[in-house]
Amino acid sequence: MSLTQELLAANQTNRANIPGETLAKMDAATQALLDDHIEDRAPKAGDTLPGFNLPGVDGSKVSLTDALNGKPFGVVTFYRGGWCPYCNIQLAHLQNRLPEIEALNAELIAITPETPDNSLNTKEKHDLSFAVLSDIDNSYARELGMVFALPDSIREIYGQFGLDVAKFNGNDDWELPLPATFVIKADGEILHAFTPADYTKRLDPDVILEVLRKQQVAA
Predict the structure, then answer these.
(1) What is the mean pLDDT of residues 58-76?
(2) Residue 217 pLDDT greater than 80, yes or no
(3) Residue 209 pLDDT > 90, yes or no?
(4) What pTM does this model have?
C-alpha cells in the first residue's frame, strides 16, 4: 500500500469514528486555511529554499549544507509532531523508502516544531535513520510562510483527544507548519514543492523518487 493509499484509509477510518459536530469543526479549520491561500504563500518549484541552522535530536545545530552531507539533492519534509497519526504514517513510509532515495544521491531531512527531546522520541519510535531537526517556535517554517495558529475550536478538540501541542513544542503558541515536502538541489533550488493545507495529505515517496530519477536522466 502506498503512502497516499494508507493516509486515505486512515482518514476514512478516523472520520467514521469522530462525532459529526467535531468533524465539522475540524473540516472548517482546514477550509479556513484553504480560503486564506496559505498554500500560495509557501515556496514553489523554481524558488530557492533558504538555509537553516536548526538543532538535531542531540541539541547540536545543523545547517542545510551539513544536513545534505555533500549530496547533490535533498528532500526536506515538515511534519507536525510525533503525536500526529498522519505524520507517523508518513515517517514510516519515508524510512522504508530511504535506501531508494539515497541511491539517487539525495539526503532526507525531516523538520518538526517539537523540542529536540520530543523529536528524539519520534526518531527512536520509528527507528529513523535520517536527520530529524527541531524548528523551535516554527521560526524557519515562518520564514517560508507556512505557519498557522490552531483556532480555539481545534485546541479544545485536541484537548479532548489528550493532545497537548504546546507541551510537545515547548511554547504556548499552538502553531504548526504545513506538512510540506520539498525536493531540492544542493544550492537550494526547489525542483518540486508540495505544500498542502490539508494535514491528512503528504507527498508520496513515489513522486519524490520520480523527481529524483528525472534529475539522473537529465544529468
Answers:
(1) 96
(2) no
(3) yes
(4) 0.96
For the record, the C-alpha cell of 203 comes out as 507527498
DSSP for the chain, please give it.
Answer: --HHHHHHHHHHHHHHHS-HHHHHHHHHHHHHHHHTTHHHHS--TTSBPPP-EEE-TTS-EEEHHHHHTT-SEEEEEE---TT-HHHHHHHHHHHHHHHHHHHTTEEEEEEESS-HHHHHHHHHHTT--SEEEE-GGGHHHHHTT-EEEPPHHHHHHHHHTT--HHHHHTSS--EEE---EEEEETT-BEEEEE--SSTT----HHHHHHHHHHHHHH-
Chain-centroid distance, C-alpha 96: 16
Backbone angles phi, psi at 132, to 5 degrees: -125, 120
Longest dimension (CA), the chain: 53
Q: How far apart are CA 61 and CA 163, in angstroms?
A: 28
Residue 219 pLDDT: 61
* Contact in structure between 177 and 134 (CB atoms under 8 Å): no
Residue 133, beta-bridge partner list:
111
Task: Say what the pLDDT of residue 215 is.
Answer: 94
Q: Which domains does the chain have, with CATH numbers?
A: 3-218 (3.40.30.10)
Strand partners, 106: 73
* Residue 121 · residue 134 · CB < 8 Å: no
Which residue is associated with the grid cell 541539541? 59
Q: Encode pLDDT of 84-125 as tens digits.
A: 999 999 999 999 999 999 999 999 999 999 999 999 999 999
